[in-house]
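Whiteboard transcription, Tuesday session. T.W. wrote the structure tokens on the left side:
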């Protein structure tokens, strides 16, 4: 995998958080909506599939990757859509979405209804690790997407997904452990978890949760001869998580500069009917 290419694309996306990039208003745009347990993210690409705008908002309208507050989710997606439309000066008509591996058809439809309720036609629904690989472009290995509520696993051989799984363990569990240890509210624990300066201090506290995730990974990939683990998802931004997973699994573990943006980017790349 070409980490330089991936990190450059991520950096371009980060740069669009503060302002839109110039583009031809008549060209086709690719939109991805990532309904996460902790954040909802909307990414827009131009016809060359380069980022031109990105908006995100902290939200707790999903639990373990499933929508539990439909109206809340719909309102946030609509808000992000309107912000980007104002920045770009165009209307967004269609979008792609992704769900955790193994999500039932009924739950996947709820994700779809949220985005359609916000005013965009959903033209593609895919699983999150597969979306991530549109950015990573891995031929062989395993993509681990650790979000707020779930850990998604996608094993690839010769560029094709041969196995997927999803377990209800993720960043929310790290926050709960932090909240219990410091006797603070969950929201305060979330802020502590995302503070880069505190993450090394917090690492011993959340280590058991990361070890549990490592066990889940190890169990799911044991029959596939995996040489490399690639981490994506917001929880993988936590400093040192890759070191623990590599130690526990015995497999080289790598992550891009900002694992959080990989899946939203990949979702938008798949916005084609």
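and on the right, the sequence the group agreed on:
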């Amino acid at each position: 995998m070409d980490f330089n290419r991936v990190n450059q694309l991520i950096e371009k996306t980060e740069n669009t958080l503060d302002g839109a990039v110039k583009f031809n208003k008549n060209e086709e745009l690719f939109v991805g909506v990532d309904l996460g347990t902790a954040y909802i993210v909307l990414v827009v690409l131009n016809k060359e599939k380069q980022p031109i705008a990105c908006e995100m908002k902290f939200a707790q309208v999903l639990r373990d990757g499933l929508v539990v507050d439909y109206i809340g989710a719909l309102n946030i997606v609509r808000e992000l859509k309107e912000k980007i439309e104002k920045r770009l000066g165009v209307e967004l008509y269609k979008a792609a979405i992704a769900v955790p591996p193994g999500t039932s058809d009924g739950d996947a439809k709820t994700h779809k209804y949220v985005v359609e309720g916000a005013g965009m036609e959903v033209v593609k629904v895919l699983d999150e690790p597969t979306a991530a690989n549109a950015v990573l472009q891995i031929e062989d290995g395993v993509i681990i997407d650790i979000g707020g509520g779930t850990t998604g696993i996608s094993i690839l051989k010769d560029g094709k997904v041969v196995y997927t799984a999803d377990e209800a363990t993720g960043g929310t569990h790290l926050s709960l452990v932090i909240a219990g240890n410091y006797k603070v509210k969950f929201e305060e624990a979330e802020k502590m978890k995302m503070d880069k300066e505190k993450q090394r201090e917090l690492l011993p506290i959340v280590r058991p949760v990361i070890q549990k995730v490592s066990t889940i990974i190890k169990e799911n990939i044991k029959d596939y001869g995996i040489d490399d683990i690639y981490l994506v998802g917001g929880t993988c931004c936590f400093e040192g998580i890759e070191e623990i997973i590599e130690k526990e699994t015995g497999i080289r573990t790598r992550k891009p500069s900002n694992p959080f943006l990989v899946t939203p980017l990949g979702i938008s790349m798949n916005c084609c009917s």
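Someone added at the bottom: The domain at 139-260 is CATH 3.30.420.40 (Nucleotidyltransferase; domain 5).
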